[in-house]
Structure formats: C-alpha cells, structure tokens
Amino acid sequence: MKILVPVKRVVDYNIRVRVKADGTGVETNGLKMSMNPFDEIAVEEAVRLKEKGIATEVVVVSIGEPKAQDTLRTAMAMGADRGILLTTDNSPEPLAVAKLLKEIVARETPDLVILGKQAIDDDMNATGQMLAGLLGWPQGTFASKLEQIDGRLQVSREIDGGTETVSLALPAIITADLRLNEPRYASLPNIMKAKKKPLETMEAASLGVDIAPRLTVVSVAEPAERKAGITVGSVAELVEKLRNEAKVI
Ligand code: AMP
After folding, report:
1. What distance in angstroms lies between residue 121's CA and the mean position of ligand 1's atoms?
2. In the chain, what are the domain boundaries?
3. Which fold has domain 2-224?
4. pLDDT in tens, 145-199
C-alpha cells in the first residue's frame, strides 16, 4: 500500500497570532512556522502503517512557498520516504489544493491519502472532502482509529455524541482527528537522515490547474476582549449577581 500525506506549513500552534493593522489577515512575518498539528498525526499514522508492514511507501506533499520544504523534511525525519513540494506565490484555497493533489494522485497512484482534518490557520476543514469528491473516492473523515480488515479500511470517526465506524474500499481518503495517535518527535539522527531523502520541487503552475482564488477575505478581526472577573464574598452575592446583573438564572 502506497500512502500520500499532504502536509501544510502553518504558524506554530503555540504562537498567539496578531491581526494585521489593515484587517486583511494575520501577521506571519518572523513567526515560528511548523507542520499543521493534524498533519503530524496523519504522517505518524502513515509511518505506523509502514512499520506494521501494511504500507510500502509514504510520500509527503506540500503546496506553498519554498520554505514548506522544511515541513517536508520534518515529515521525512518522522519516517516518510520522500517529499514533493509544489511552489506557489500565495497560500492556495482548499479547492485549489484539492485540484493540485488530484494531479499528484494521478502521478503517484497512492492507495490511500491521509490528510489532517483541518489546517489550524484558516480552519477550513474542506480539502480532504473536496479531494474525495474530485477523485470519486470513499472518505473517512475525523478518523480516530484506523484498521485494515480483509483488504478494506475500517475507520472510527469522531461524530457528535459518539463514534461512527465505516468500512472503506481502497483507494480512499482519510482525514486525521486528534485522537488517532500521538505523533513522535523526530530524533536527531533521523533529522540528519531526512536531509538525504529525495525531495522533488516543481511549480504548482506547471500542473496546468486553475488555482485562482474563489474567495475574498472581507475582514479579519481580533475576538472581543474578555472583561476582567470579580471575586464575590458569598454564595448569596453570587446568586444575586447571576440573577440581577448577568440575568442568567
Ligand atoms: P483545510 O481544508 O485547509 O482545513 O486543510 C485540511 C488538510 O488538507 C490539511 O490538514 C492538510 O493535510 C491538507 N492541506 C491543506 N492545505 C495544504 C497545503 N497548502 N499543502 C499541503 N496540504 C494541505
């Protein structure tokens, strides 16, 4: 089984992002960038399938600015075999990413594509579903457990109020949820080894896909500041404030 894992370079999840003064987006200049956390989970799952002897090759692909090669190297240090970087001038929308991934799928013919359930920068949660739609492949989104049974994939999905289990014929699309696994840290020797793994770079434009933006960002704003709390002297005072000030009881 060959597995393709798309990984996105995003602002590190520990960084508190700030909205640009003109409200057109968030500041990314000079900020620490990392692999999207859900994509780390997707890479980990693919590498585990390889370690179990189920997968034969794990290929990682990233679409974005040339620096995304660092993200691919991280994925290779975790155990992916090789990387593909599709360079673009700006960050493409999910539909454009899905169309580009469809082209990569046509070239690489993987049996399984494991994406993150969402990229934490734009929170779109759309690319995996769109790719499944474009390819006409079955999809198991929000996966929290993955097993291969009789040549099919059994996927436990996180849904409101519980877990749903679906059985998918290959080739298929999976999107990884938080509970699927705990990604490993890349060891120093593996980081060194990853530098020698193959990394192919090409311009996204060379794939002949229309990746023009369809969305216009109208404005980006900081969430409203939370008001400072107060300390009440007694339960009676708390009840009085909840009833007469907050009017919630
Ligand atoms: P999104 O639909 O933008 O929330 O992203 C969902 C998933 O699609 C991510 O977790 C990645 O696996 C993949 N993805 C989105 N954008 C990119 C990109 N520019 N390069 C590689 N993979 C991406």
Report:
1. 10
2. 2-224
3. Rossmann fold (3.40.50)
4. 999 999 999 999 989 989 999 999 999 999 999 999 999 999 999 999 999 999 9
